[in-house]
Protein 1
Amino acid sequence: MALKALDIFKLLPKTNCKDCGCPTCLAFAMKLAQKQTTLDQCPHVTDESKAALEGASAPPVRLIKIGTGAAALEIGNETVLFRHEETFYHPPGIGIVIPDDLSEEALAAQVEKLAGSKFVRVGTDIAINVAAVDDVAGDADAFARTAAAVASAGVPVVLVSSDVDRLAKALEQTASGRPLICGATPENWEAVAALAKSERCPLAVSAPDLDALAELTQKIVATGVEDLVLNVGGEDLAATLQALTAARRLALKKQVRALGYPSLTICRIEDPMANMSACCSYVAKFSGVVLTTLTEPEALLPILTVRQNIYTDPRKPIQVEAGLYAIGAVTPDSALLLTTNFSLTYYTVEGEVEASRVPAYIGVVDTEGTSVLTAFASDKLNADNVTAFLNSDDVKAKVGHRKLILPGYISVMSGSLHEESGWEVMVGPREASGISKYLKTVWQGA
Amino acid sequence: MKLMETAVEKWSGAIQEVTLGAGADAGGTRTSTIKVGGAAALPFMDFEGVTPNAPVVAMEVWDCEPTDWPAPLREALGDVVKDPAEWARTCVEEYGADAICLKLANTHPDEGNTSPQEAAAVVKAVLAATSVPLIIWGCENDEKDNDVMPVCSQAAAGERCLLGAVTEDNYKTLVAACQADGHSLIGLSPIDINIAKQVNILVSEMGFPLDRMVMYQTTGALGYGIEYTYSIQERGRLAALGADKMMALPVICMVGQEAWRAKEAKATAEEQPTWGNADTRGVYWELATAATLLQAGSDIMVMRHPDAVRALKGVVGNLMK
Ligand code: SF4
């Protein structure tokens, strides 16, 4: 929560001594509110004021790190409730829940799956990036053994148990990997918080409702454990979504610091489709760690993709990789249509080409994610870069003719492009919806 | 709970309530009519306001056999797709569709180029075979739609169908038809709040009531632009709750149509050996698209796969609990 200048001013000495370089304390407060200066420029500010100001300028949702090294998961530090207001910054961990009663072979298979569960979408790897060990056997050795095996997969681990002895046992071998202890309840919190403190691990906290949860986090913070995660459940879809939204809103809009932590959901719903739907919803609605009992790739892929999509920065257009794309059973004689690398533009063109059932190539030029008209107007789509694309090895190797279909909106480019490239330039439809008809009627083959 | 009360956001507006279908009392023949919209809160946030009506799960039916739908989809639907009336009946009776969305794909000049009368006959057959509300969607060729839709509108007069779609550039013919025959309208605007508003203003300036309008802001499938749809719908919902009447219309999403175009839904096991079971992968994709869009504020979900419909109905049930 950004402090207003007047709130800051109230905490300053109000002597207008100018030592900070500002004519008045109020001027200094205004600069500080706009983050154009730092508090240490005023040598006279009291320690109490300093503490108050620093506390107030801490992020409303604390940044929590689970795991260590390159694979560590950072969640929290979010600033908005709706992605269009700015962006969501820290994509949630998505992970599978591994029970501690598996046979050795089943466990080994799970661990292997974990390490290899990666998909490539639009040139980016998307993967499971956290794993939970679930205390179902009620046996410290089984829990510790499973935890050690899962930790070996190289992803951050969540230890799910409310039994302090079993948690302690599992932490003997895994604490150095900074797992998330999940966790503290109104019943066990003193012992579990002490464990989190001594092992320096983040701690997930659960309670029957948000009031009890806020009360509990305050008690735990008072013991010196500050890296907390709110475990808001995950079985009851409606209740979980309401808790996720309320916690985020209270932290951001009502300055409820006791709920200023990222959230965690564990979905054990038996029906796989209901489970996946719930997980997708939790990803969209702020959950920082989304744990599921699903393990099949066809069920995990959509959840990972929701994360990829919802956590893209709406201020930056999404781009597809520039290059030559083949749609359908193309031959060297297939038509070649030109478009830009703005993802929506590309997907629209791709969809229409596919729907036409006429095999064709789509040439994608890097226009920094702008649409055809914008790219042309800002010279990001011009005879030079189109010619460079036409001269690329890929086009030379796959396209056996020299006819390019240009988006109708930029027909004015035909002349210069023809001169520059030597290709025959055909003017295609203005809107993608005309592509199908164009390919079936105007395009007469190479 | 104290904190839940502190978390309440006080909204000044609500989504317009729109009735789909007309029963005998209202001059139609539907035995089930549905109300959509009406929410006075962000989606499913019961602690801050009411969500009086559950999102509608509709199923898409075509006026011709959709031969290019992916294999898992065609296999699940079976031979009924050869007969629109039978297809629609199966959707309602076996899969529990709340409404039918009849797409007049075969009227397109590049497809069957069927006549307005042929299309109207399909509309009548589907109405006769089902008792749920009907959504009728043209072939998205303005000229042809302007020939076909008025005839279909008349064939369904009094049934309070939902007809689509009008755009900024083409609305007068369909508005007039819906006005004459007592139907509701879908306004189409591709992910743009201002255009959405503009369409609603143009239509209401013709004297068409807002409580008979639904918005289609186009649907991006998961992985293929869903984030744009998500944010546009979320912004629309916020505007509506902030008492912007011209944005307070329920929203329809063409989930099945878009989701089944995704590679993730269509690819065979040979093409993508690491993506899991190819028979269910598309169902998950369709369902995930729908479940995610429900969180942004969506009122009518048009689906294709029977299993995705069943699962989505379960999700809606859990959300409305
Ligand atoms: S140095 Fe501190 S006390 Fe002096 S004018 Fe600046 S803000 Fe005020």
Protein 2
Amino acid sequence: MGRAMLRIQGGKVYDPVHGLDGVRRDVCVADGRIVADVSGGRVIDATGMVVLPGGVDIHTHIAGAAINFAREMIPEDHRRAVALTRTPVRRAGIGGVTPSTFATGYMYASMGWTTIFEAAVPVLTAKHTHEELRDTPIVDKGCYLLIGNNEIVMDLLEAEDYERARHVVAWLVWAAKAYGLKAVNPGGVAAWKWGQNVKGLFEPVPGYQRVTPARLIAALAQIAEDLSLPHPLHLHCNQLGLPGNFATTLETMKLLEGRRAHLAHLQFHAYGGEDWSTFRSEAPRIAEYLNDHPNLTADAGAILFGDTVTVTADGPWQYLLYQLTGHKWGNMDIENETGCGIVPYAYRERSLVNAVQWAVGLELLLLVQDPWRIFLTTDHPNGGAFWRYPEIIRLLMDADYRRERLKALSPKVLKRIVLPDIDREYTLSEIVIITSAGPARALGLSQKGHLGVGADADIVIYDEHPDPGRMFGRPRYVIKAGEVVVEDGEIQKTVSGREFIVRPAYDETIEAFLQPLFEHYYTVSFANYPVELERIHSAEVYSWEEAVRQ
Amino acid sequence: MGGKPACTLGEVKNRADLIIYWGGNPAECHPRHFTKYTLTPKGKFTPNGRKDRTMVLVDIRETPSARAADIFLQIRPGRDFEVLTALRAIIKDQPVDPERVAQTGLTLDQLRDLAGRMKRARFGVMFFGMGLTMTRGKYMNSSAILTLAAELNAFTKFIAMPMRGHGNVTGADTVLRWTTGYPFGVCFNRGYPRYNPGEFSTIDLLVRGDVDAVLVVGADPAATMPQPAIEHLKRVPTIVLDPKVSTTMRIARVGILTAATGISAGGTVYRMDEVPIPLRPALRSPYPTDEEVLRRIRQTLAARTDE
Ligand SMILES: [Zn+2]
């Protein structure tokens, strides 16, 4: 390959996978990977700096029809956004809460994040998603297929034909060129096609007798396991955002006993109270359950105060949010597969509900004891833009700062949260786990999230600084696949990242079953439905056999 | 308050039992719309096809599309906004001024009947065309029909979607949005994207003479734009890429014939509902594709800057 060799010398290395907690040692790179030693090549003097594996975002919305719809809905945000001027190494773009694709790559990289996963992709518009991912430079990426409201799968489960459902799901993963399975408000989004939602986990989805959210969740979690997908079912639980929804979340977690699953943006699912006026945190109950059940991982979906836009496949919730805010509403239902809703939103410190939400995100991160099972996300842009992650890191590492921020909240809020009673402060190693090592492990990406020999040389180097918000906001160097892409927080070089795709095993005859259904239910031809592999640049395909080996 | 309640066309095929075309003539302008997506196809929850659906046409004149409609409502030119506002009131059981209704060319009974059908529909959809969006009060009209559809969701499922133009307008809009944040009218003269329709849209730039070179790809502005814009195209170096010798190519400094997209050049077209469809060329062309030409121009320019 002949790509430049590199030695990072004298830095304090944080590599929790290998038990390195600020140990001074050299990190060597050749041909895009970490190696034991190099002779020659560039030397970076990292004295006074910390050396970490690049960040991994397990749940973000950065590419495809939904986020592009959001871009259309908020021109007012674009005008106040950071403008990225074109330079010889960087294309023009805009930042803000829905950065343009090139800007997304630059902004993640300039923060030290080198791998990101788009969390919601319909098959029907997956070509669009992959086009945008291709235009998102530097970072490696992948995406999850929206499967929780797929009517062909639901019809098969209604007929209790689990076997065939599994083959269909496997076929769809490959058709979408996805990496994993995502279920959003299972059954509820399908109900939204008639303007309805599901009630609880155990009542049938409208139009079905046997299919309930509970059955859907159990079946899809099982399918993810049976297909040996590297990442388990990625679940956006039912009742997102609603007072008292923690009970649904607990019931869902109980359903998943004995199976692996990842719970997305848990903050939005950990609320108590009977209505908006009695809204309160139930983070301790949710964290306690998670602590006792190692089959589950979660990401925080923390919120930060300020303006943003909410983007989710959860159509019925977005309609409700539109009614609550009375502002703008975008909706895009995707035939036979899923939905999508867009609502611009501002989280206000003075709003009781928003203040509780802010606390719940931090409480979950602080109360889940095992950092390997809870990861830092804001469900970008839903809880706040990804480029605000350093603010959350500071809140986690600095209890005094947290107390300072709590002073701004009304005393009414303080009675509904437990954050004031929590003294825990994250260590830097723990931050590396929740931002890199943990999500990489949950994704089954053995080459990410650590600095051991053979790992991808995705490395971030920060000047040590007492304020972690400052430190994480501006890396000194970011190295992607062995190339120095960022120096002093500025893009130096644009490389293109890879895309991770899984090809699960399925019976090829499933196409003969699908095609006639397809011609009846869809408006595009069967041949035009799957994403062509050639459409994806630098695809890294995990075939079924490899996935099993992991 | 504003909404944009939309869906892909398969949702209409599978579910819609009330289909309203407003200010458009799909029978002539989008001939496949009726048979592929909206009226006649038998969908998952519309097993009897046309029999399961009611079609309403709202327009200022009786176009050929009226023949396909169950109900034709002829309104006076420029009265769309009043009709939409009255419908918004009626569905919420608010009083409406009969005199204002009378000015629209429709009766209150007709409006009440339509409002009733909208609320009783299982799945209603309004497709609106240039007759609504390009007439007096165009922004107000679009906003009113979208808001009406959003408000109808308090009673049933309701969608409203614009009937977009031909070619790959939606595709251009989609790509520009992901690369710059904006759908059209984007200016890069400060090194980053800025958006201001009216200031940076093509016609305005040409009429004001603000541009000193023009590259036209797959469009024929000289056939449709106002004369002062065309005059400016003639004045400055204009380069046209087109599979045929278009009106614009005739007045351009440079014309390059390219392979016809969809016939002899591949690519992706975005349907009006933003569903991407791959194009598979059936024929070979002696001409290069638009993409090849643009790439070569760019490479040549890059080589010159390096010198
Ligand atoms: Zn999400």
Protein 3
Amino acid sequence: MAVIEVKNLKKYYKVHQKEPGLSGSIKSLFHRKYYDVKAVDNVSFEIGEGELVGFIGPNGAGKTTTLKVLSGLLYPTSGFVTALGYTPWDRKPAYQKQFSLVMGQKNQLWWDLPAIESFILNKEIYEVPDAQYKKTLDGLVELLDVKDILKVQVRKLSLGQRMKMELIASLIHSPKILFLDEPTIGLDVVMQKKMRDFIKSYNKKYNATIILTSHYMDDVKELCQRVVIIDKGKLIFDGALDEIIKKYADHKLITVVFGDEVKSQQLAKFGQIKEFEYPKAVISVKRSEAPKIAARILEDFTVEDVNIEEPQIEDIIREVFTGKDFA
Amino acid sequence: MRKYFTVFAIDWQNQFIYRLNFILWRFRNVLRVLMTYYLWISIFSSQTSVFGYTKEQMIAYLLLALFISSLVTSSPSNDNVGGEVSNGTLNNFLVKPIGYLRYWFTRDLSSKLINIIFAVGEISLLYIIFRPSLYVSPNLISLLLLVSAVIIYFLLGKLAISIVFWAPENTWGFMFTILVLMEMFTGLIFPLDLLPHWAFSTLQFTPFPYLIYFPLASIIGKPVDLRILLQSFVWMGILYYLLKKVWAKGLKTYSASGI
Ligand SMILES: Nc1ncnc2c1ncn2[C@@H]1O[C@H](COP(=O)(O)OP(=O)(O)OP(=O)(O)O)[C@@H](O)[C@H]1O
Ligand SMILES: [Mg+2]
């Protein structure tokens, strides 16, 4: 059964056009021109219990807007949404107690107090029983390794430490659904890895349903069996990560290490040269012809090593974003 | 209910962080009393009674005004709610099972408590220095008027701030104007019954005199009857209803535009 169901969701922002300058401001007092920003434009998907879904798309694609609708912060322009059987923007406490929205830049901690105080406040807000609170907190503190900074003023924590605390504050009520908007933004590679491990184990341990947005493909590769790609408010792909490769990658990459001098002109006939720095070359060739071309290269040149690879997922997605028309 | 106790407790701790700010704010209060005090002293230098107030009564009035304004007008929500709405911090609350206005009312109460504690100290000091003859006779009506004043002040402030939902960019000037106007007509600076009769009775049809003047007049033993208390409650009811409506409409706009 679907935990989250979204059907034909549209969210158009009404933005009023303001002409620059004072006279523009005065004019706009009397006569406002509005235009629509189609942030989410007819998007449908379903998410089942325990799924960990990656939302990707370029800046302004509509990812955050979708998460805001799902958490009840925004009314949609039209469309149907339910989560755990609730309509998010009714803002029913019964629903609110079961999800959490975590935004990379959001700040819900009391800046001047130790983080533990904010945890206690959230415990009360979400009406978490004492025993459960203690257990959850202990678990989270251990997982994220923050035992010795619990009593430090939040303003004195580093960004990474603060993000961990934000995360704990968001999870004190053991939500069944997590909306994570760029949870690894601004973290160093070690912290990113830790955050990913944490998200993975949270998903497993609680069978939690998680939607995650990120601009880091590593997040998506490591965490999400399923990805949803949106661009300019429209859903352009929904499926397993491998399927993106099958669907969009019409080419493979042949990497060759030559034993003898080679000119790039000699290679151009095989396919598109992605990289060439003697002795190594990377050539992009049609998928179906890859074995044949590799054989010919081996025949024509002195070769020390050859490798046929799928293209990088990053590259495919970049191509999908930059408007190679796949529809 | 328990969650609001926790809000109170945490806000209480938080207040001790900005000690300097707090002390400056208290200093401003005392300064205002001293300024009005010297203003009145200079008026009383040429006459012994002004509109029926003796010098002593006037000083008592001003001292108590300091106390009551600490209770009624110390309201950090007025400084924060507008900003939190326009910068989107409100989102943190909208996703949680907590009432945003109740949350801020609770924080206001915490601030009021600490302000009253300080006000008692300051008043004792001023009392020792000036030795006015203080005559007070608070009764149940005074108490109820005070409670009503606290609530009316909160509601009025939030009602004015609600404009931020429709004009998130430029509310500060508006708020400031409203607050200054409010202060003029509350009785904080002078007893309102100094005004010409027509002005005084017109003011009774606004919520302002119910904030400082009437509770204070009742405490210093002026005849403030049940009718006044009733009018105060009516204002409380009207403003509560208005704020509920306006805030709900504002939230609707907020959730549509996603400030
Ligand atoms: N409150 C708002 N009012 C008007 N337009 C908005 C508002 N919020 C977002 N938009 C617009 O809606 C579109 C989608 O924005 P959204 O924040 O959902 O994108 P996103 O996919 O999260 O992008 P990013 O990866 O940069 O975070 C953008 O064109 C943005 O400018
Ligand atoms: Mg975003």
Protein 4
Amino acid sequence: MDRIFERLSDIVGSDYVSNAAEERFIYSRDPGVQRPHEPDYVVLPNTTEEVQKIVLLANEEKIPVVPLGGGLVLSGLSIPLKGGIVLDMKRMNRIIEVNEKSHYAVVEAGTAMGMLSAYLAKHYPTLKNSLPDAPPVATVAGNVMIHGSGHLSQSEGGFHSEMVTGLEVVLPTGKVVKLGSCSTVPYWFSRAPLPDLAGLFLGWNGTTGIITKVGIKLYPRPLLNDGLMFLTEDVDTVPDIMFRIVNTEMCEDLTFFITPKPAMFEGFQMTIISITANSDKEMRLKKEIIRDTLKDYYESKEAGFVPIPKEMKAFLLEAPQKNLSAFADVRKGGGFEYVGAIIPVEKIPDAYRAGLEISARNGITYSLGGRMIGRGHSFMFYFAYPFNRADEDDMNRVRQALDDTNHAALKMGGIPWKAEVSGQQLILKQMWPATYEFMQEIRGLLDPNGIMNPGNWEVNP
Amino acid sequence: MKKEYADIIHRCFRCGWCKLPLNFKDFNCPSYLKYRFESFSSGGRLWLIRAWMNGEIQTSERFAKILFSCVTCKNCVEACAMPKIRQYLVDMVIAAREDMVEQGVIPPGVRDYLKAVSISGNAYKMPQEQRAIWADGLDIPLYSGQEYLFYVGDVGSYDEVGKKMARSVAMLLKKADISFGILASDEITDGNEVKTLGEAGLFEQIASQNIEKFKGLGVRKIITLSPHAFNSMKNEYPKLGGNFDVYHYTQVLNAAIKDISMAEVDLKVTYHDPCYLGRWNNEYWAPRSVLRSVPGLELVEMDRNMQNALCCGGGGGNFFTDILGTGPDSSSRVRVKEAIDTGASVLAVACPICYRMLSDAVKAEGLEDRIEVRDIADIVNDAVAV
Ligand SMILES: Cc1cc2nc3c(=O)[nH]c(=O)nc-3n(C[C@H](O)[C@H](O)[C@H](O)COP(=O)(O)OP(=O)(O)OC[C@H]3O[C@@H](n4cnc5c(N)ncnc54)[C@H](O)[C@@H]3O)c2cc1C
Ligand code: SF4
Ligand code: SF4
């Protein structure tokens, strides 16, 4: 039997290692359009110690290690571009601790976002975590790793990586480190007041280490939630509308979408304002304040609030929003991929126009929209393109559109988020050269054998 | 594979909503829960089936295990994010199994089961004459024009806990003055598992044989012990010309229970929804209503109940083929721990397969002194007897 396979089996048990054709097939691809590449082994560790032993073995054998969470990033970031071991982290999904008064949870890396939220709803009903609209099996570590964002990104903490209070990481050399307050005291309350080392890992796509535990901030869960929809025909007004709403500090989540279907929405931009409150009185007041701030818009009939159909409200207020996943089936094709560009808020109109132009040029359909991150600090603008998985030409058109979009996002002053490898290369080419060099130096120090998710964050993979 | 499925199988996004129940409590796809490789999740399995159809992967033992470890519990159907394909998810798995059966390359456990059924008329390779041992001493008549045929099925006829359950139900039906008869040694398997294991031809043969027999005897109404037989007789037999009024025993009891007098009990009970009654046939209330009508019985729910229930792991033929296997992550063992969390001392079941799976799991977990698995009819019987 294969020596590496045997050693991996000794570490995690033979039930949790595979080099079978079936697993190599499934773990060679994700739901997006990036091209597949097979791993040699798929391993499902259960503890930090097991991860550590796997990493030591990988160093000895000089084979790549690619961490995988939910595998839902869509841009192929866990496709093992150079083979090796895919480390599926989802068996490590224990919720270790919830500190109610200090508002944080400590979870194992592979904990599903949805499962954390269900756990809180049952055991700590006054608290909640910020949920991305990714399917609920997206993992906490995978999401913070790529600077995800979610329902509380506007009102509470910005990117989910900013909500991280501490990490446990297995370094590429096998050392286990704890970062944040947990490195010094038994509490995981924050990364301050210590030198902040978490940035060596967050955003690096697993190229600098494997996260095994995450401390993540929790927030109050008000009793009621409701929403308002504001509709405008002039996209140039959207940044100002967003600015005003944010400044009221009355809403929880602030998103925006444009879709060619259903036809009644075509040509309009819809801003969705989610509001939470603990009483009807508070809800009424918050709505009134938000309405007031946009008074001149709706009085001039340039834009206006529209009632949200009951059915639509139910899915708009759902977290995560299932209908976003269902977008994959709009063309009966089973897939979509998007460029989520992090852009300055004032660039929303440019992004909108670019999205329309690119999809028209490539002859594909689209959904455009996004979410406010922080109190108006940046905007995650998504350009989502559905494709037919059974039609290679269609997938090629979407690949082209994604590439065009990456270029356009950078040109307008934004940065593609969780970019696929080719998008990462575009970013790196535009990056301040000394910064890129510094990144590579850090990586060389942390991962001398270059085993961690190779191909990512490299100009020449 | 049938064209209608071959044309849509690429529409699974592999987004994984189907791994969880609607309330996200925990992994709710038993084969994924057990194996944890993406390949054993609903989406992974569908992608592999497609790859197999396209020649990207070959028939193998591993692939067969992946295919046959689906317990057809329909959690995926409930939770899938794609409204237009979700109702076909399990049908696609069954269709792929049919292709595999046709090619003659199936796991030994599946082959043995299908062989036993076709040769002996039951999964246990037991003599047909021993079918009605469960009824010894109960004075139950053979079916001869009574209002209902009580169809007991293989597990109720041959499995020890199944037999206990068949007795409890029959005793209660008698107490409720319901007119019924049984087929005894004339009964053969209902075919539900044969169908889900992909032997469509054998299923048709079994179903037709049953339909003919039922018609010959003038049967119009059927009470089934098992939700699995309930499913095939209610939903599949009509396609082959067998139109009977089919009821699960909890439905008949629910209608009759108001006339049964019961004494007060002191019992905290949680109820496990069988997939073939719940998600397959949308019957969540009759069993609960029967339990609630027992005076003093406190019914508490597990976190995963009704549409969100975690399967016992015995569906889709796995009860007989055991492809899903045992171990701490097997859904039956996870399920009994969930039942313990409710504080109930009784885990009520309404299916002989669940009964066996969960009883064994209680033993495997060493929880015999904390919880007892009991069938609904047995619980009611005790209250009647008090
Ligand atoms: C319909 C849909 C909607 C979405 N909406 C949102 C949204 O609203 N907000 C949002 O943020 N995202 C969204 N996403 C994108 C993505 O699904 C999420 O960000 C998701 O949380 C990623 O987590 P994951 O566990 O799937 O990560 P994966 O895709 O598994 O991994 C992401 C990256 O992190 C690395 N990684 C994973 N685990 C570890 C670990 N333990 N240690 C080190 N590296 C690791 C991987 O190697 C990879 O590079 C959406 C996706 C879909 C399909
Ligand atoms: S079956 Fe449905 S929910 Fe599951 S992966 Fe496929 S599309 Fe997603
Ligand atoms: S039917 Fe049940 S076991 Fe089969 S894939 Fe769906 S959820 Fe999993």
